[in-house]
Write a structure and sequence with these properties.
The chain is of the alpha/beta class. Helix content is 38%, strand content 15%. The chain contains 15 helices and 15 strands.
Length: 449
């Protein structure tokens, strides 16, 4: 859409100034409602890979609403179906207590994309809820309570999922952490065992068994991990890690939960679910974010033998499976298939990664480039030998990129990892725009240091 089009329709969005909005936020939002930039950015419209502020200024969005936009902002097919549902007076809210074609069709479609044997589906409103359900189901199915997660892992913002969070900044003093243990994260760039690919024997995976043997009574309810660790800084373990860990978890009676809230929906350029691509022997898979292209929907899918013990119990979620949300998720899945977006994520993702590796040769701030498909992390360090965290430099980079009309994300325990997760529609030209902005911005920072 042209900027003229935005100018013509922006009046309603600028009734209140940014200063008034900030004042209202300060008065009524809880203190955790922070914003990315020194000067808060007010986004009002979006199309494809671009978003626009209240002045009509265009930004290339390469964080996708925090890894939520897969088919592109405001895809016309999703818009049209929403209009049709409204015009046809389709029911806005119903629950699984009633039949609804959108919910059923989505369950069928999702089960068809899952690994063999995983076909029981429950919908939720978010990834946090999807993981809460997965943990509850695993505990119920096994009769055990102990759950193992990973240091640097993140599985949601609810009380239960935060108990499995591997970041002190997300934890609260009152956080319930009983029946929770953590294993060392499989971070190849910062290997805690001081190994490199040439002499690695998957010590991180073997540590999972040692942790079970030394911190539990010898049984697990579940192990939960992300195939690529999102908030942790897009940490990308080797494939063999998951195979060894799944075998260990199952030998100790636990269920393997693969958290695909960020990696799912084809983002990693392989299958719709990365669990399937990596051949992870998972019992439960969770997803959200890009699954609904930004709609408030998540899902927990599981094996029959995990679901069947729920028979006779009551589990209910008022808004899970609502028609509009499930329609958006189903349409998103169709768009990803019709427009060959998984292949685009693979090829453009590799093009972007190659470009970042070229930048790494010129910019000493870049310590590591990692990720899969269009889920790419760039870790910034003050010194490549010591790998000292370049936190301040990452914050500066965020501001400089914004000045160049590109929005990026950040993550990692110390906030020094640039997170890139654009819509799967990203083109090579847009990747070049991103790379050029990074090149200029890094040069500014390095010249000043």
């Amino acid at each position: 859409m042209s900027l003229a089009g935005f100018e013509a329709s922006k009046t309603l969005d600028t009734v209140e100034s940014n200063a008034q909005l900030l004042e209202a936020r300060k008065a009524h939002f809880i203190p955790t409602a922070v914003h990315y930039y020194k000067e808060a950015l007010h986004l009002v419209r979006a199309k494809g890979c671009y978003v626009y502020d209240e002045q009509g200024r265009e930004y290339l969005d390469v964080i996708g609403g925090i890894v939520c936009i897969s088919a592109g902002h405001n895809h016309p097919k999703i818009q049209q179906r929403m209009i049709e549902m409204i015009q046809n007076d389709e029911i806005q809210h119903t629950t699984t207590l009633y039949l609804n074609r959108h919910t059923t069709r989505l369950a069928e479609k999702l089960a068809g994309e899952a690994p063999t044997g995983i076909h029981k589906v429950a919908f939720t409103n978010s990834g946090s809820e999807a993981n809460e359900l997965a943990l509850m189901v695993a505990r119920h199915a096994t009769g055990e309570t102990m759950v193992m997660s990973l240091q640097h892992g993140y599985h949601g913002g609810t009380s239960g999922t935060l108990a499995h969070c591997g970041h002190h900044s997300w934890r609260f003093r009152s956080q319930p952490v009983s029946n929770v243990v953590s294993a060392i994260a499989p971070n190849c760039y910062r290997c805690p065992f001081k190994k490199d690919p040439a002499n690695c024997h998957l010590e991180c995976a073997k540590h999972v068994e040692e942790t079970i043997q030394t911190t539990t009574h010898g049984k697990l309810a579940a192990f939960i991990a992300e195939p690529v660790m999102g908030v942790g800084g897009f940490i990308t373990p080797p494939e063999e890690y998951f195979h060894l860990v799944a075998d260990i978890v199952h030998r100790y009676g636990g269920k393997y939960i693969s958290d695909e809230v960020q990696t799912g929906a084809g983002r990693c350029g392989q299958d719709f679910l990365l669990t399937k691509s990596l051949k992870i022997d998972a019992d439960i898979i969770t997803m959200a974010k890009g699954f609904g292209n930004g709609a408030a929907i998540g899902a927990t899918i599981m094996r029959s033998e995990v679901a069947e013990p729920l028979t006779g119990k009551l589990y209910f979620n008022t808004f899970a499976g609502d028609p509009f949300q499930t329609m958006q998720a189903l349409t998103t899945m169709e768009i990803i298939q019709e427009e060959n977006l998984i292949e685009n994520a693979r090829t453009v993702g590799q093009y972007l990664k190659d470009g970042l590796l070229e930048l790494q040769k010129r910019h000493p701030l870049i310590g590591d480039v990692r990720g899969r498909g269009l889920l790419v992390g760039v870790e910034l360090v003050k010194n490549r030998e010591t790998k000292e965290y370049a936190t301040a430099e990452t914050n500066q980079l965020m501001e400089l990129m914004k000045e160049r009309n590109v929005l990026i994300g950040k993550g990692g325990l110390f906030g020094n990892v640039v997170r890139l997760a654009p819509a799967l529609t990203l083109t090579r030209a847009q990747a070049d725009q991103l790379l050029a902005a990074l090149d200029e911005s890094l040069s500014v920072i390095e010249k000043a240091s």
